[in-house]
Design the sequence.
């Protein structure tokens, strides 16, 4: 597997490698430091789980509704320009969200919400245009490896960011003689992380625009046409909505669960989330081998089913060992499925519709994430975290039945293997 990756990565051009650099920085700041500390920062400001769920839900909604316009803008102005603008908005939005805690109490919620919405608008502009860019910049031989590298580098950056997120508040607290019970160390750590994204802006600025995929790369696996393509798109959309909702149901409040219910120290929370990012990277790297052996459909179904069982373990056993094992399993299997889903959905359409497909799938992901994050805070407050995690596992089970039941038939196997 490693030798295959080295060979495939050598085929990737300079621009693809710069995209991968930007993704590593993005993973460090957004899925590392912010994923570890932002919810805890909100709690230290005196807000409860309901607001944590609300702000994450609103962010997912903003991301979701921005995805289709982001794909259209990428098609109109070029993916590279739109990605640069998106990363710039991420820097401004995340830095402002970190500083919103300095505002008077009456303005904190509104200021933090607006800033985080801006960051997620930038997230949509940036992330939606990566898939069509990579599809145009790669050929069939290295495509699976390119996309799995995307979903490996984000958690690798997140691994480093989660470790940093566990350590930075204590460091800033010691430097300022403050306390980890207050918000200041968390605010300073979040601001430092947001400024790191400037390196991602520089990497994207050096990328050159690409056009449509070359002729030899246009015959992607699974391209379909006619009425069947619409039914396939709907089946993919229903699956993806439920899959994201199930995953986000645990991701959005897992650090709150560890902090509030299990009393896990912040350093251990950061270490656990960092390990999850590391296993996510390993999961992504296995996707090309699994896809070559099983095909995309079976790879997606097996990974999603395993995610549901992992989340069920967290909900059924209220212990740190079970929570850690379940979350780590879910995280690793998620990044087996995610690049496979991306390649599968991009392969359903011809090159001129890839931006639209990317925007549509990302919109569905945002709406599923928003619904799950918003509901998660209220479900956890009203019924407890165990009920929330069981419901999340059930959503994944339904997604497996939907996707496997449709694409697992003869027509689905034909789409997968073409």
Sequence:
């Amino acid at each position: 597997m490693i030798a295959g990756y080295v060979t495939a990565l050598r085929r990737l051009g300079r621009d693809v490698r710069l995209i991968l650099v930007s993704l590593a920085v993005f993973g460090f700041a957004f899925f590392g430091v912010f994923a570890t500390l932002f919810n805890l920062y909100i709690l230290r400001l005196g807000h409860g789980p309901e607001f944590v769920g609300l702000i994450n839900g609103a962010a997912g909604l903003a991301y979701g509704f921005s995805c289709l316009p982001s794909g259209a803008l990428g098609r109109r102005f070029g993916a590279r320009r739109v990605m640069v603008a998106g990363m710039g908005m991420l820097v401004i939005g995340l830095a402002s969200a970190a500083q919103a805690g300095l505002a008077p109490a009456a303005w904190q919620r509104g200021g933090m919400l607006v800033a985080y919405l801006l960051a997620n608008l930038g997230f949509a502009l940036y992330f939606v245009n990566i898939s069509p860019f990579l599809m145009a910049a790669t050929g069939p031989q290295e495509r699976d490896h390119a996309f799995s590298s995307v979903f490996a580098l984000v958690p690798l950056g997140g691994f480093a960011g989660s470790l940093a997120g566990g350590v930075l508040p204590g460091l800033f607290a010691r430097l300022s003689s403050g306390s980890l019970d207050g918000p200041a160390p968390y605010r300073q750590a979040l601001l430092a992380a947001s400024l790191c994204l400037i390196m991602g802006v520089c990497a994207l600025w050096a990328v050159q625009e690409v056009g449509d995929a070359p002729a030899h790369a246009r015959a992607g696996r699974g391209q379909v046409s006619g009425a069947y393509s619409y039914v396939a798109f709907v089946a993919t959309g229903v699956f993806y909505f439920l899959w994201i909702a199930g995953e986000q149901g645990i991701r959005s409040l897992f650090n709150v669960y560890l902090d509030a219910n299990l009393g896990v120290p912040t350093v251990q929370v950061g270490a656990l989330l960092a390990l999850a990012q590391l296993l996510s990277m390993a999961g992504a790297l296995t996707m090309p081998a699994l896809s070559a052996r099983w095909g995309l459909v079976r790879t997606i179904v097996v990974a999603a089913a395993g995610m549901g069982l992992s989340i069920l373990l967290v909900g059924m056993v209220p212990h740190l060992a079970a929570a850690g094992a379940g979350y780590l399993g879910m995280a690793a299997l998620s990044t087996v499925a995610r690049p496979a889903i991306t390649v599968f959905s991009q392969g359903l359409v011809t090159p001129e519709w890839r931006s639209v497909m990317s925007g549509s799938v990302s919109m569905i992901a945002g709406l599923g994430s928003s619904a799950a994050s918003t509901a998660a805070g209220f479900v956890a407050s009203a019924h407890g975290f165990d009920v929330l995690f069981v419901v999340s596992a059930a959503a994944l089970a339904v997604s497996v039945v939907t996707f496997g039941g449709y694409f697992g038939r003869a027509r689905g196997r034909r789409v997968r293997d073409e």
About this structure: The chain has 17 helices and no strands. Residues 212-228, 410-418 have pLDDT under 50 and may be disordered. Residues 310 and 326 are 4 Å apart (CA to CA).
